[in-house]
Amino acid sequence: MNRILIVVFCLLLAGCTSFAIGEPYDKAIDDELNAFQKSAAEFIKTMQVNAGTPKGSYESDGAKKYYAAAAASLSNLQLRADVLSSRTCPIAKALQLIASTGFDTGEIALAKAEGQVGGVADKSPPNVSGNCISITIRNIRIREDELEADHKDAGRLTPTVALIDGQEIDAAVRVALTALRAKNY
Amino acid sequence: MALDFEDMGSRIISQATQIAGGSWKAMATAATVEFRGLAQRIALIVEAYANGELSQVRAKAHLKNARFHVIATLAMLTVMTEAALEKIVKGALAIVKESVNKAAGFALLL
């Protein structure tokens, strides 16, 4: 108890009336994430409804316009997130914590699913550089790339694929917003 | 007026306990939502591959990138932990400042 009080006194005497760790809240990122999620959801629904017609194809004007706008929006979001702080997100500690609680069952589920689709994809390590908000934005960019690759590969968005891509984008945006808003108090 | 260290200490501990409890609940809820959602999407990817909606290359890519969602979730939990710590320290600073100023009888700490 006394040690805590001494530390707090020292902070006060040093003029530390405010205390912050990591990335601050950024309203512009919050707003842009909301706008991106809305446009992605609208686009996926439109493409799904028009699947099999020229309007729903990857080559359609609507698709070209959306993918270009989404790439620009996410590139700007990444830039804004990257400059929030110059540190590297300390997720190694969190990884240890999660492993100790037995959450690694997710890895077992993934390995099983990979067996069902004919083996693993390339095992290149993920890019975990940058601050914590940067990582969450990178996750959204990966989901957006997945959507575009699925659309390009099949030429259309079928119901299950539309559902997967929609849920992946929603989850990635939710994670980024939750992280960002944790500092908005 | 003399500084009541005992009272100040208990107020700091009480506030910190409250913040930590609330933050832990929020973190547990967020993590549960993400890991459950991920498990459901993994099942959907296998289903889409089985019914021919996803090619093998695309299904493998989805599963590979599913791991990055776990990393992003850990980054989110890290930020939430840091936010809780910030709130605890800021709360403690406010309590000490208020107690010192009250004991001094004027705004000694600004």
What features would you describe in this structure?
With 185 residues, chain A is mainly alpha-helical. In chain A, 68% of the residues lie in helices and 0% in strands. Chain A has seven helices and no strands. Chain A has helices spanning 2-13, 27-49, 61-82, 91-100, 105-116, 132-154, 159-181. In chain A, helix 2 packs antiparallel against helix 3 (61-82), helix 2 (27-49) packs antiparallel against helix 7 and helix 6 runs antiparallel to helix 7. With 110 residues, chain B is mainly alpha-helical. Chain B contains two helices and no strands. Chain B starts with a helix and ends in a 6-residue tail after the last helix. At the A-B interface, helix 1, helix 4, helix 5, helix 6 and helix 7 of A face helix 1 and helix 2 of B.
Radius of gyration of chain B: 24 Å
- Kindly state the number of beta strands of chain B: 0
SS element count, helices of chain A:
7
The dominant shape of chain A is globular
Assembly status: heterodimer
Q: Spans of chain A with pLDDT under 50 lasting ≥5 residues?
A: none
Return residue spans of chain B where pLDDT drops below 50 for at least 5 consecutive residues.
none
Quick synopsis:
The complex is a heterodimer of chains A (185) and B (110). Chain A has 185 residues and is mostly helical.
Sum up the structure in keywords:
heterodimer; A: 185 residues; mainly alpha; 0% strand; B: 110 residues; 2 helices
Give the topology:
The complex is a heterodimer of chains A (185) and B (110).
Chain A: H1 2-13, H2 27-49, H3 61-82, H4 91-100, H5 105-116, H6 132-154, H7 159-181
Helix pairs in contact in A: 2-3, 2-7, 3-6, 6-7
Chain B: H1 5-50, H2 56-104
Helix pairs in contact in B: 1-2
